Amino acid sequence: MRGGLHGWRLVLVTILCLLATIFMGAVFVLTQSRGGYIGLAVTLPLLILIALPRRWRWYSLIALVVLAILLGLLVASRWEAVRTWVAGSDLAADPALSLNSLEGRLEVWSRAIYGIQDFPFTGMGMNAFRKVVPVLYPLFLVSPDVDIGHAHNEFLQAALDLGIPGLIAFIAIYIITFWMLADIWKATRHPPLNTAKSPKGDHWSLNTEHWSLITRSLTLGLGGGLLAHMLYGLTDAVALGAKPGLLFWMLLGLIAGLYEQTRARESLAA
C-alpha cells in the first residue's frame, strides 16, 4: 500500500509539473521577449549537456552542432525577416514603440552611460532614471510621452541606481551565487556517506543517492534560471527597486539556502 501511495504521488507530482511547464511556456511565448528567447536558447542546451551522463555528452554536442547548422541555414534563407524581428526595425518608425527596437535600446543605453559618467559614485538614486532622462538626456527616437522605467539593461540600471560601487557589488552577487552553485554541484557528485555523527543514522546513508539526485536537479533548475535571467538582463531589466524584482531575490535566497543545507550535510558527515 505504501509503495502504491508513493507511486500515485509521483504520478500526481509529474502531472502537476507538466501542467505548470505548459502554462509557463505559453506565458513565456506570449511575452514576445526577444531577450527571454535568447536566454532560453542559450541556457536550455547548456543544461542538457550538464545533466546528461558524460558518455552521452559528445553525442548531444554533435546533435546540437548539427541543429545549430540547420538553424543557421534557415536563418540565412530568411535573413531579412529574422533581422527585422531581432532588431525590431518595423517598430523603430513609431515613436511610441521605438523603445522596443534595437535603435531605441541603443539610444537608451547611451543615455544610461551618460548618467553613469555624471553620477559615478552615488548613482542617480533608485527609480530616478525615468525622471532624469527627459531633463538631462532627452531622447530623439523615443517619444517623450513614453515612460522609460529603466535602462533596459540590469547592469547599467544597477550603476544608475547605486553608482559604480553598487554595480561592482551587483556583479559580485552573481559571481558568488554561481560559485555556490558550482560548489553544490561538486559536493553532490560524491555525496558524503559517513553518518557516524548523524542523528538519522543509517537512514541517511540509504537516502544519500536520492538526496544527491534531488539536490543536483534543484541546482540545475536554479542555476539555469539565474543564467537565463542574467542573459535576459543584457537587453532588458527588472529594476532593483521594482516589485517584480522580489522574484530575483527569492531565487538568490533559494540558492543560498540550498548551499547552506549542502554544507551542513557535509559537516555532519565529516
Sequence-ordered SSE layout with sheet pairings:
Layout: H1 2-31, H2 34-51, H3 54-77, H4 79-87, H5 89-92, H6 102-118, H7 129-136, H8 154-189, H9 202-232, H10 246-269
Range of strand content: under 5%
Distance between the termini: 37 Å
In DSSP terms, counting alpha (H) and pi (I) runs of 4 or more, how many helices?
Answer: 10
Structural class: mainly alpha
Mean of all residue-level pLDDT scores: 82
The main β sheet shows up as: none
Helical percentage = over 70%
As a whole number of angstroms, the C-alpha radius of gyration is: 23 Å
Low-pLDDT residue spans: 1-5, 194-206
Helices and strands, in order, run as HHHHHHHHHH
Shape summary: globular
Q: Number of DSSP strands? A: 0
What does the model show?
Helices cover 74% and strands 0% of the residues. With 270 residues, it is mainly α. The chain has a domain at 91-269. The longest helix is centred in the middle third of the chain and has 36 residues, at 154-189. It is globular. It starts with a helix and ends with a helix. Mean pLDDT is 82; it is low at 1-5 and 194-206.
Could you give a quick summary of the protein structure above?
This protein has 270 residues and is an all-alpha fold.
Q: What keywords describe this structure?
A:
single chain; 270 residues; mainly alpha; 10 helices; 74% helix; 0% strand; disordered N terminus
